[in-house]
Structures are given as structure tokens and as C-alpha cells.
Amino acid sequence: MTLKLGTRGSQLALCQANAVAALLLGRAGIECEIVIIKTSGDQLAEATLAQIGGKRLFVKEIEDALLGGEIDLAVHSSKDMPAVLPDGLAIGAVLPREDARDAVALPADGAKVRRKTDRGDVGVSLEELVARLGQGPRIGTSSVRRTAQLTRLFPRACFLPIRGNLDTRLRKLDAGEYDALVLASAGLIRLEHRARISTALPVPACVPAPGQGIIALEVRADDDRMARASAAINDARARAALDAERAVVIRLGGGCQMPIGAHAQVVGGTLHMTAIVLSLDGAQAVRAESYGAIGDGRTVGSAAAEQLLEQGAEDILADVERAHAAVEGLQP
Question: What SS3 class is residue 201?
């Protein structure tokens, strides 16, 4: 049996699709044909996410192909998936989570990137990073979540949008167009650029996006054969974390390009959730923590969301929505 596995065509997406295909072959004896599908986000590669942001931006065409029977399975970076899936689709499995933290990459000019110690290469500390970048660094990121949180560390920073594949972004950084980039650690690690992680930002300093670092396998909800196949590669701990993080977004009603961070991890047999909602300028922020059993991910996430709402998250997100609407109204 050969399955058609749908994916975006970026370097990272293909890396992730190949990882899924290898696991399906190794654990279930199932061969896959990788089908590259160009999404709306890929077609508008020069626009900023703030300009084109919307639900299903990087998954719509893939999900449509899955619903239409053109492919059997779909592979996504789970943070790109909408909180509420289209009718007829479900998450069949997730792979073990890679490092969920955001990473800062500095220009490749020797000592700035990595420093030597007796224990080998390590990244610079957060304090050293702040000192090195100075008062007004040019930081490349297209994420409002990252910008809102990092404004608190770098109040005079100039945050500049950046898109494109990883190699293109790093070339722009090394050419001096930016003083630093903020990227997902997972993508750098999967594409064998771990050495470019100058600092992995601690979760309390920059709470990751819901689902960051998790590869998700999407199937048709009524396809029992695909459900059985995908179950063979599912990682229970990562699935519990993803369920919890998605529950936060669902309860808050958040969508693409919203300053919401949510990170769950299993600690000593307990699922521990940290979540945050911020204003676009980072001036307002509410945080929450919740705990629960691994099998109760959705409950743990919903509990954190309720705490956020009690602290005023709804008003903060309403202001963000109005700001986005104003920007969209200015587009030609």
C-alpha cells in the first residue's frame, strides 16, 4: 500500500514529510509518495504575515486536497493549523516534540554566534544577549507574539518583518540586514542549523506559539484505515501537550497572528501548562498556569484559558482584532 502524503514544498516542510514517511515505513510497513502542494502563504511569499494573515494560510490548499481525496494524509507544522479544523478532518498523530523554544540567531561573525567553554559550545545567556545587542537592535521576525514579548526585553528595538526559507533568512542576517533573527528552535535543529542558535529563549521570557515544535499528521475523520496507520507513529506526550495548547486558543477564540503563547510539557507525570496573552506593544500581558493529568490535555488548556479571561484577555484580544482590522482597511 502506497499512500499519498501532502505537504508544502519548503525545505523544512519536506524534511518533516520525509520524517513522517520514514516512521510510517519503519513502524507500519507503509510506503508514501510525497505530494507537494503550494499554499496561499507560499504564493504570497513577499507579503508580511500581518498583511495576509488569516486562518489556514499555510494549510488551506493541503486540507482541501485531503477533503477531496487527492491525498491520503497531510503533514503540517502544527502551529500553522487552525484551532478548529474543517469538518471532516482530524489530527491522526503527532511526532515527538522538538525543542519548542524560540531561538535568537546572531550574525555568523565568529564569537558573536557561539562561545567556547570547558563544556564545549554553548549559547550565550539571555543577559549576555541583551548586552550584546544593545539599545536599539534590528530584530527580524514576522510574529506578533514574539514581537510583543521581546519588546519587554528590547524596548527600543526595531522589529522588521522577514519571510522566506531558512537559508535565505540566515543570508540576510549575515549580510547585515538585521542584528538578530528570532526563529523556532525546532526548525533550526531539524535543518541541521543547531549551531546558529545563539540563545534559546527561556519559556518564561518568550512563551512559544501553541504547537511549536510539533509535527502533526492530519487525516479524514471517517478514514479508519488512515487512523490506524497514523496511530502507529503517535507520540502520547506530544499529543497531550498539543491538545492542551490548542484548547487555549479555542477557548480564547484566537486565530492567526494573535499574541497568544501556550506551552505544555509533561513534568513528573503531570501536564504543566504556561500561557500568555499580550497587547501588540507588549504593554499589557496576562499569564496563567494550570496542571493536570496527561490524558486531560484539553481540560488543562481550558483551565489556563479561563484564568486568562478572568484577567482581561478578552479585552486585550479585542483591541488586537481592531488593530488588525485597521491595518487591513489600509491595504490597497
Answer: coil
